[in-house]
Amino acid sequence: MAEHKMRYLATRQAGDPLPEEENKPEKDGENSEETNRPLESDDRKESAKATDEIFGIPRSRSKKEKDDIWVKKEYLLFDLDGTLTDPKLGITSCVQYALKSFGIDEPDLDKLEPFIGPPLLDSFKEFYGFDDEKAQAAVEKYRERFKDVGIFENEIYRGVPEMLKKLKQRGLHLGVASSKPTVFVERILEHFHIKDYFEVVVGSELDGTRSDKAEVVLEALRRFFPNGRVQKHKVFMIGDRKFDVIGAKNVGVESVAVSYGYGDMEELMQAHADYIVRSVEELKRFLLRGYEDMDRDLNNFQKMWILISQFVIFVAMRGFVRNACGVALDAMGIQNVSDNVSTLILGISFIAAGAAIFKVARGIVKRTIQDMYLTHLKKDPNSLYGVLAVMSIALSLGLAMLFNLGGFVKGSEEFQKIAEIQASASLWVALLTYGLIAPIAEELLFRGVMYGYVRKFFDVRTAIIGSAILFGVYHGNMVQALNATILGYFMAYAYEYFGDFKVPIFMHVGMNVLALIIEYSGLGKTGFVCWPVCIVFLVLGISCAFFLARRKRL
Q: Around 366, how many Cα atoms within 13 Å sit in the side-chain half-sphere?
């Protein structure tokens, strides 16, 4: 069996302590009567298929959907005990009450914590050696106290109501899937005034039926999708115990385990939870995919203004500083400056332009990376970075040759003039300005600000294409515009693919440095620039792009 890769979400650094109050319950259940038992790993796949056939739910999740990291989870199923509420006092006090009726006195409620989560019937058998008849009697005694008293000895975790409200505002479909009897689940939700957030509430029956977690989840899916077309790839099962994880796997949906409940990290990892979060805040951020702090109510004009304003600030600051340097030189009586000084002044103007938008860019990049992190929990192998490097070099050289051999360069006087100016400075000055400073500043604007904002307001595809077009338009002349649009597309794609803002920066710097070296070495005026070489580079670059796309779909 292939090794299972558990993905661990940590919005803090691993090992950082949680704030003491973060997951404390707010002061204002019967035990989660889980009867879901772990299956042997080799049987899980068959079990999932079997349960679907038994309950009449088609397995709609294709391999394509499984590998698509951009499938949004629109249906969220929450366990109750240990996930939404802390039932410790109620459950342990009722267990204590039941044990006392059998002459067993257990004054330490902490010792009864193992009863939280597993099936009550099994717990009485395992922990106190009760036989079937005695264990069933203990469950009845437990419920005697629980139905009127223990059910309300319960606390809701801090931040849960706010999280549910935010999820609902985003249009997500919420449900509860608990192995606790439905009648008790509904009373608890009503008690904490959160029942209205849930479209579906499913629990077990008092007669003991539908107590298996997989059965509960399947019934919840049936109610979410009454037309029979169950979209399992759009569903998360969220819970704190291995029973929730295993139940989700047996049904075929992904699981999000919470370690702030009553299942420890070791238990959740051994159960192979798909994701693990450590707090309600982390859970909220994970489920909202980084959209929780974006104002989605802005009209189109406001959205466009946000984009345009940063572009205008960047261009205006670059022009202002460049002109200011010219005025300063004139004031000092310096009328003519060398090409190196002129190029360095341009570099200074790019630094100023980048600094003008840096604060905004840093905030957007931080939020974008945080959002991307949720789909990049598994580190990409180094080999993919190698493929990206080859793709960048091949496409950069291939496109340059294509525009040259195709007559585009000769047909653009504006481009020839710009190329002549860039080649007038010495190599080290050109490398500093055009190979380092300008690319970094431009990445702050186009991949940092432009891409980040479009991605938040719209979607990934629109962001990649839109930022690439803006990058092309920015360059002005037709040759650079076409080249920048194509390469801008791949830089934005790589940013999204690897989830690291340094990737497009290195790509941009690398391609500019490569172009400068070829120009200053004279290689561009030799037989190296020919159609066969051009075609080889273009085919190689496109092949690498297809290889990356096949490894991970965006």
A: 9
How far, in Å, CA of 264 to CA of 242, rounded?
Answer: 9
* 195 and 316 fall within a common domain: no
Closest by CA to 390, choosing from 471, 511, 509, is: 511
The C-alpha atoms of residue 546 and residue 554 are separated, in whole angstroms, by 12
Residue 38 makes CB contacts below 8 A (sequence gap 6+) with 242, 246, 271
Domain containing 79 — which CATH number?
3.40.50.1000
List, for residues 93-131, the tens digit of each pLDDT value. 999 999 999 999 999 999 998 888 777 888 898 899 999
**Same structural domain for residues 274 and 406?**
no
User: φ and ψ at 468, to 5 degrees?
Assistant: -65, -40
Q: Which of 65, 292, 10, 257 is nearest to 165 (CA)?
A: 292
Strand pairing class (254-258; 275-277): parallel
Local structure of 409: helix, strand or coil: coil
Rounded Cα–Cα distance for residues 523 and 529 (Å): 8
| Residue 22, number of CB atoms within 10 A of its CB | 16
DSSP one-letter string for 465-497: HHHHHHHHHHH-SHHHHHHHHHHHHHHHHHHHH
In a domain, 174, yes or no: yes
Domain with 221, as residue range(s), is 25-86+154-288
Q: How many CB atoms lie within 10 A of CB 351?
A: 18
Task: Tell me the per-residue pLDDT of 308-349, one tens digit each, with 9 for 90 and over.
Answer: 899 999 999 999 999 999 999 989 988 788 999 999 999 999
Which residues belong to the active site? 79
Phi, psi of 78 (to 5 degrees): -105, 135
Please identify which residue in the block is written with the tokens 């998360």: 236
pTM: 0.62
Q: What is the DSSP letter of 232?
A: G
Return the percent helix, strand and coil in the chain, to nearest 5: 60, 10, 30
The phi and psi torsions of 151 (rounded to 5 degrees) equal -60, -30
Residue with tokens 């792009």: 545
- The one-character DSSP state at 437 is I
For 407, other C-beta atoms within 10 Å of its C-beta total 9
| Total count of residues recorded for the chain | 554
CA angle 422, 504, 442 (to 5 degrees): 45
Q: List the structure tokens of 216.
A: 């509960």
- Tell whether 14 is covered by a domain: no
Same domain, 520 and 507: yes
Q: Supply φ then ψ for residue 204, to 5 degrees.
A: -85, 175
CA atoms of 524 and 522, how far apart (whole Å):
5
